Amino acid sequence: MNSALNRWQARPPHVGRIAHAAPAGGILQRESTLNIDDLTPGEAKALVRQLLPLIEDAKAAPADAIGADLPERAVLVTTAHRGVFFGYLQRFDAEKKVARLRAARNCLYWPEENKGFLGLASMGPQKGSRVGPAADIDLQDVTCVATCTDEAVRLWESQPWK
Question: What does CATH list as the number for 69-158?
């Protein structure tokens, strides 16, 4: 195994760079490099034994680690059901495709001047937009979360629609 470790350490830095510290005396060493194509079956098994604790640690992470509270930010969210919503993102679970918005508003219509739904995030609702009242909501089947510009937030908050 020492010859395999020496081969990995001699590789260029872009080949299989490992940034995690491994147990002392193991195949992996901090900042070592490796090419999995050079592994013998025994070396591959030893490598897997070293990686298993890292995998188990990742599995043991708290269930809400992905959907944890976030620093609130103004966003435009779209859903698979063609919903378009402005609001303040509080939680987001990318795996479950669920977002929690505070003071969310549903945009029912926007004019051609918005140049598509992302125009709502960059410009805000233009004259002729139709937007519903605000409510705190959880959205399912999220397809896009776009950060809104300061100008867009100003227009969303000024409620220029009828």
Answer: 2.30.30.100
Residue 121: name the closest of 162, 96, 154 by CA.
Answer: 154
pLDDT in tens, 30-64: 445 667 788 888 888 887 788 777 777 656 554 44
Question: Which two structure tokens, joined as six digits, stand for 147?
Answer: 């950060």
Please name the residue that has the structure tokens 């999995």.
Answer: 36
Predicted pLDDT at 58? 59
Strand partners, 85: 77, 106
What residue segments make up the domains of the chain, in order of their start? 2-59, 69-158
User: What is the rounded CA–CA span in Å between residue 49 and residue 45?
Assistant: 6
Beta strands 69-79 and 135-139 are unpaired
Per-residue pLDDT tens over the stretch 58-84: 565 544 434 566 789 999 999 999 999
